[in-house]
Amino acid sequence: MTPKAKQNKLYLKVRNVTKRFGTFTALKDVSFEAGQGEFISVLGPSGCGKTTLLRVVAGLEKQDSGQVVVEDRDVSDFPVSKRRMGIVFQSYALFPNLTARQNIAYGLKSRKVTQDEIKQRVDDLLELVGLKGMGRKYPARLSGGQQQRVALARAIALSPDLLLLDEPLSALDAKVRVMLRSEIRSLQQRLGVTAIMVTHDQEEALTMADRILVMNQGELIQNGSPYEIYDRPATPFVAAFIGSMNFISSAVKKEKGLYQIGAHLLQVSNENGSSGLKKQSSAILAIRPEDVMVLPKGGESEVNKPNVMNARVENMEYRGSVFRVKLRLSMAGNENSLIHSDIPSEKIGRLKIRETMEVPVHFPTDRLRVYSADHA
Fold first, then answer.
1. Which residues does residue 261 pair with via DSSP β-bridges, in sequence order?
2. In what order do the strands lie in the sheet with 39-43?
3. Cα 250 from chain centroid (whole Å)
4. Mean pLDDT by 10 residues, the chain (376 residues)
5. For residues 268 and 287, is the Cβ–Cβ distance under 8 A?
């Protein structure tokens, strides 16, 4: 996994946006920026405010405070029609009584565009989204993936400066989602349009976005590249929400880079999540399952490596190329001693790992993260 670097001209600024519905605050002082041609994903659990944020940017909702600025122009009070934005909804929102061609052409008819120009534009768009020859079909005769392509073509028909996608793939089956997310990303890059996509699917966000905004309870928790969000989660919430994460509580900071868990001392080279943590403070250690290393029992590597603890294999779940193995660390009195390790199937066979056996487990110093217990 490598970070995606972009130095694009700043296009969109969302400044200190707050939105309330009665006594409920859906957005709390949210700010972020987007560069020209950048693909941003807004990720978070249901009810976190991500769709409300998209609707505020689109002009479908009026913020209570804050600004939406597009190319140095404050559009906070502009209606949708004045914002030059294309919107693709989760439900497709196609007109059932219009053909695919007519749906795509719908917005063009209100512009000063000739019939020949409309026909050419629709033909180009149908080919662009892979629906050449299907323009005369009504939505009921199209698959879910095809309907979403029509919705996408309709959204870009007016050459918007900003493309807004509200969970566009959530209603599709898994294989179609994987195919369409690649197509949408490729199309967005070819058009050079700035895009903001709301999703609750972390895999979509990680594979499609240049940058991810992680939200929870109306607040922006972390803003970073997919690499940063996955590899350097700012809080336990982000760490748990993006991918899988093991948390080992009841750790105590002994000194910089050294933490005690029961009778064990673990070295940590990455303490970015523990800002201000003093000696003897309670801490939480976190590590991804793919970074938990099961070693050959009694091997030389077991002796020479730091951060090695014994564990008992509680359960093994076959997942094709890997096993998700549940391990109970040898930590008397610690209720949270259960962790998971993702072990390649080949290694499972080579080390003859079985349930109930005792194995040495290594925690690489550069893969452990530390969080203050106050963040739990």
1. 264
2. 85-88, 162-166, 194-199, 39-43, 211-216, 219-224
3. 29
4. 56 97 97 96 95 96 96 93 88 90 89 88 92 93 91 90 90 83 90 93 93 97 96 93 91 89 87 73 93 83 72 95 94 71 96 94 93 76
5. no
CA dihedral for 7, 199, 207, 89, sign (positive or negative): negative
Q: Tell me the CB-side half-sphere exposure of residue 115, using CA atoms within 13 A.
A: 0
Alpha carbon distance 37, 11 (integer Å): 8
Cα–Cα distance measured from residue 56 to residue 315, given in angstroms and rounded to the nearest whole number: 47
Fill in the amino acid letter for 315.
N
pTM, 2 dp: 0.87
- Calculate the alpha carbon distances from 308 to 350, 354, 367 in Å: 20, 19, 14
From CA 180, how far away is CA 85, in angstroms rounded? 21
Q: For residue 38, give the DSSP letter.
A: -
Q: Which residues share a beta bridge with 164? A: 87, 196
